[in-house]
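Field reference: sequence -> structure
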Amino acid sequence: MAISNSNNLIFLLSILSFSFLSISTPAETSNSNFQIKQQQDEEQQRGPFVGVNIGTDIQNMPSTSDLVSFLQLQKITHIRIYDANPDILKSLSDTKIRVIISVPNNQLLAIGSSNTTAASWIQRNIVAYYPQTLITGISVGDEVLTTVPSSAPLLLPAMQSLYNALVSSNLHNQIKVSTPHAASIILDPFPPSQAFFNQTLVSVILPILQFLSKTQSPLMMNLYPYYVFMQNKGVVPLDNALFKPVTPNKEMVDPNTLLHYTNVLDAMIDAAYFSMKNLNVTDVVVLVTETGWPSKGDSKEPYATKDNADTYNSNLIKHVFDHSGTPLHPEATSSVFIYELFNEDLRSPPVSEANWGLFYGNTTAVYLLHVSGIGTFLANDTTNQTYCIAMDGFDSKTLQAALDWACGPGRANCSEIQPGESCYRPNNVKNHASYAFDSYYQKEGKAPGSCDFKGVAMITTTDPSHGSCEFPGSKNVSNKTKEVVNSTHTSNAGEKLRFRIIKIITINNILHIFLTCLSPLLLVLL
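Structure field:
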C-alpha cells in the first residue's frame, strides 16, 4: 500500500465545489448512458464479497498451514497476496478460498518483453495449482503508473502476455487479469461527475481500459477515504469517511447529478466510473483491491485509532453485504479487499504504515469488529464485546432527552446511576446517558438501530466501565449466563441484519413463533 500522493491543492479546490447541502429535490439517477455489463462468470454470480490483503512484512509470520487454518476459522473466503507464494498456493488447495495473486513490479520487464516468460509464469504459478487452488485473478504490478511511472509502457504488454498464456491454457474465462491503481490517477474526484483521469496518463490508461472491457475484467482501484479525510480536514467530515449515519445536511451532493453521497468511498468509486465514461468505457466494473483505516499513528495522525479503524471496517463490511451499490450504480456493488489481515510490524515509518491490520502477527485481534448479523464472516466477533455510549459534542439538553427516553419508554435498567449507586459518579448527564444507552443496547440484543438515540450515541469496542462502575455490556462478557435487568429479547435479536432481499430466520425465532401460536391453544386445553 502506497501513501497517497495526490495533489492536495487541486483536490481541495475541487472538493469545495462538492457542497455538503440538504437539497429537497429527489436525486435523479440517470443510468441509461451508464450500463454495467453483467459479467457471467461464477464469481460475479456469487455477488459482492469482502476479502483481505495479506502482506508479509511481519516479524513472526504464521506458517502457511497455520495461516490457512486461521482464514478458515475466520470464514474468510477471498484473499489477495502480493506475489505468487508457492507455499501459500499449495496450502490453499481444496479449501474453497479464492485468491488473487500478483506480479511484483520488479517482474514487469521480464514478463512484458517476453511471451515465453509470461507463459512460463502462468504454468508455474497457476496451472500447477488450479483448480484445486481457486485462483480467480492476477494483479499485474501495484500502482505502477504513480509509483514507478518509468515502467508504465511495460504494463499493458505484460497484461496481454499473461492473458494470452491463460488463453493457451483455456483459463482466460476463470481467471481475470488487471492492475491496481492509486486513487491519484483520477483528478478532480469531487464531485464525482467532474472526475477525469490524469491527462498525462490517458495514453496508457485508455488501452488498459479497452483491454479490461474486451476481457471482461475489473478496474482495480486502491481507495482510501482515510487519506481523503486527512488531506482535507475541515472539508470532509469524519462521519462521511467512516460510513457513519449522517443527517441530510451532512450528505455530499453532486451539483451536476443531484446524487446524494453519505460516504466518501462511494463517491470515490463513482469518480472512477465517471472517469471511465469520459473515455467512452461503460462496461468495466470497479473492484476495490485495497481500502482500510489504520488503528495507530504518530502525533501527526490523531485519527488513526482503534475505534475509527473498527468503525470504518465494520461499516464497510455491512455496506458491501447490504448490496446497496453506489448512488450512480445502486445495481452494482463493488467487492472490496480490506487492507489488511495482519499488522506488518516491519514496515518503515510513519507509525500508521505498520498498523493497518485487523490482527497482530500472532493472530490475536487488534480490535473487535462489530459485524454481527451479516453471517459468519470474520468470526472474531463471536464474543460480541461492543458497548453503546454517548457521543461527544452534544449539549446536555439533547443528551438528557435521550437519557429520559432510555430510562422511561425504552425500559433500560437505570438503577445503577441513581444517587449512592456504583455508576452515579461522575454525576453528569453524559456519563449517565452512556450507562443508560448501553443498558438499552444490551437489552435489545445489540440489534441494528438500538444504539442511535437520534444520532447522539455510538458503538465502541472500548469497555466504558470505570472504578466500581461496571457497564451492562461488561457484565454480559464476564458472566454470559446473567440476564440484563428488564431484558425482553434474547441476545440473538442482535444477530440479525435485515437485507433488502434475504432475511434469515433463526431457530430461536421459529421457536418463538411456534410458542406464540401454540399458547392460546394451551390455555383452552388447560
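Note: Confidence is low (pLDDT under 50) at residues 4-10, 19-44, 379-383, 478-526.
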